[in-house]
Design goal:
370 residues, mainly alpha, MetI-like fold, two-stranded antiparallel ribbon, globular
């Protein structure tokens, strides 16, 4: 009986498996193959274009050549977009969810107001915020209503950047970031699980940091060009618009999670002397760890698909606010360099996989334990 059920389930899923295999993984494989060719240039749009195998040349050009400097800055921008979106949307969403979980007057109205931006498309959001962040209007003229001088900050066109680093030090900077994150995670849970904190986070973090510091001069810098990249201030406007749109989404996730926690548990914690802050910090939020992981994965994917928002707010030719997705569009359909555009697409695919694969592995292990 069990075998028959498995056969029926397999036959039911077979059409979907075939379609996904062809139109998802098949196309991903075809894109990867195209990224290994030299398809591009004058004859790229011919009826039967010539495609010669070029190996990893396109990937090498993206990360090491002079002409790939724009892509490398776009990649740095994407990292900052992701980090700022995660910090802003999750932090703001948790704050709003806690306020609404305490049942203020007009809770239903506030919940609708905060959730409404999520219903808008990125094009609509981009158009609205482009007007709001205009150099001679919108946010910049708000101080004039109080009798002050207008602001002169160029939200979407500033050429200034901070947190600069040399591209040759990319590996070293990346190791320092990994070390910092591991040590921070270890310190965060050191009281609850000291052994786990030391073995999984603190010791590896300290080791990676020391290795980066001691071996920083012998890392393969010769492969990378010496160029300065950093956090462009022109991206602040786009980050503000994205956080505004998706804070309501994270608010809804956490508010649903708070509602699912038994009121008896909260009352018991209050009787034991816990304050409201202690309840959310030590009881409610740790219980919502799966929601936090889901929010991180979803928002990380959204940060990699900001093409339409950036296109609407700053256009395709503003190098200061560039993004790999926008670069892929311009490289593929404006420059007709299809092979290099495919290489950019594969790089974005691999970045997205770094978020989703660990989550899938963790979920699979949890199911096996159960």
């Amino acid at each position: 009986m069990l075998n028959k059920d498995r056969i029926k389930a397999f036959l039911t899923l077979l059409p979907s498996i075939i379609l996904i295999a062809i139109f998802v993984y098949g196309f991903i494989g075809n894109t990867f193959w195209l990224s290994l060719t030299d398809w591009g240039g004058v004859g790229a749009l011919a009826e039967n274009p010539i495609r010669n195998f070029a190996g990893l040349t396109n990937y090498k050009d993206l990360f090491t050549s002079f002409l790939g400097g724009g892509f490398r800055q776009d990649l740095v921008n994407a990292v900052f977009y992701s980090v700022m979106l995660l910090a802003g949307a999750i932090g703001t969403g948790i704050f709003i969810a806690i306020l609404l979980d305490n049942k203020p007057r007009g809770e239903a109205i506030f919940r609708t107001v905060f959730l409404y931006p999520m219903s808008l498309s990125f094009i609509v959001t981009g158009t609205i915020w482009r007007w709001m962040l205009a150099p001679q209007g919108g946010v910049n003229i708000l101080p004039t209503y109080a009798g002050f001088e207008p602001l002169g900050f160029r939200w979407l066109s500033s050429t200034n950047s901070v947190l600069q680093f040399n591209w040759q030090n990319l590996i070293q900077v990346g190791l320092y970031i990994v070390s910092f994150i591991l040590i921070l995670c270890g310190l965060f849970i050191v009281r609850q699980a000291p052994d786990r904190s030391i073995k999984r986070y603190l010791l590896p973090g300290i080791f990676i940091g020391l290795f980066s510091w001691l071996a920083g001069d012998i890392l393969p810098k010769a492969l990378f060009m010496e160029e300065i990249h950093g956090f462009n201030l022109a991206t602040l406007g786009i980050i503000m618009a994205t956080v505004w749109q998706y804070s309501g989404y994270t608010m809804a996730l956490y508010l649903a999670g708070f509602t699912g926690i038994s009121q008896d548990l909260r009352d018991a914690s209050m009787l034991d002397g816990a304050t409201t802050l202690n309840y959310y910090r030590h009881i409610a939020l740790p219980m919502l760890k799966p929601i936090t992981i889901s929010a991180v994965i979803i928002l990380s994917h959204i940060s990699l698909k900001m093409f339409d928002l950036i296109f609407a707010m700053t256009g395709p030719d503003n190098a200061e606010t560039g993004h790999p997705a926008l670069n892929m569009y311009l490289t593929t359909f404006r420059a007709n360099d299809f092979a290099k555009g495919a290489a950019i697409a594969i790089v974005l695919f691999l970045i997205a996989a770094t978020f989703i694969i660990p989550y899938l592995i963790s979920s699979y292990r949890q199911r096996r334990v159960r």
